[in-house]
Design goal:
Elements lengths: L1 H18 L4 H7 L14 H6 L9 H4 L2 H14 L8 E3 L9 E5 L8 E12 L3 E8 L2 E11 L1 E7 L5 E7 H13 L25
Antiparallel strand pairs: 1-2, 2-3, 3-6, 4-5, 6-7
Bound molecules: zinc ion.
Zinc ion binds next to helix 6.
Length: 206
């Protein structure tokens, strides 16, 4: 009987933790409205520590919440800032340590930004090529990074349904850059194996 009770309590506890929504601190950061959010920068000491942390998965309850809708709206506004425009953004870049990215789909008609929940790359395909990258969180810096030009992506959509998709070319590179952010990895960490060092050309920021 004691064992059964213990099992029931464990199940109910894990269900509760699976369904827990955003914390009060996260809600305060997400805020309300449609305005841009401040972007974490490695030039700021506090930001630079936060951006190196691993992000936590989102639950169905999180994704269906009002706060999530607000977070997506505000992240979109942030990445589309005409003064510091990006082609992708990850939630930790706006101070929310959750596994959410927005990617501009250059491979789709109209090149829309789309959101991906708990994304993971299950296969890094060939070929791999060097490409020039920048990052909204790494001001005034660019570098050449070796990335797969074809990936298999697994994620949850905005209804929290599981999806799998093969993504190619530059859009695949953006996904790799953004998903790195969810594990506290920045593109500058991947520059060491660059053949030609940094290049000073203008590039897109992610
Ligand atoms: Zn970035």
């Amino acid at each position: 009987m004691k064992l059964i009770l213990a099992i029931i309590m464990t199940i109910s506890l894990s269900t509760t933790s699976c369904q827990r929504g955003f914390t009060e601190a996260e809600k305060a950061t997400i805020g309300t409205g449609n305005n841009m959010m401040p972007v974490m920068s490695i030039d700021n000491e506090k930001d630079s520590l936060l951006i190196r942390k691993k992000s936590k998965p989102l639950t169905k309850k999180d994704v269906l919440s009002e706060e999530f809708a607000t977070l997506c709206r505000r992240m979109l506004k942030t990445v589309r800032n005409p003064e510091n425009e990006g082609v992708g953004i990850a939630a930790p870049q706006v101070g929310i340590l959750r596994r959410l990215v927005a990617v501009q789909r250059f491979d789709k008609e109209g090149e829309p930004f789309e959101f991906y929940v708990n994304p993971e790359i299950v296969e890094y395909g060939e070929p791999k090529e060097y490409g020039n990258e920048g990052c909204l969180s790494v001001p005034n810096h660019r570098g050449e990074v070796l990335r797969s030009r074809c990936i298999t992506l697994r994620y949850r959509d905005l209804q929290f349904k599981r999806q799998t998709e093969i993504i190619e070319d530059f859009t695949a590179v953006i996904f790799q850059h953004e998903i790195d952010h969810l594990d506290g990895i920045l593109y500058i960490d991947r520059i060491s194996d660059t053949p030609n060092g940094e290049v000073a050309e203008e590039t897109t920021k992610q």
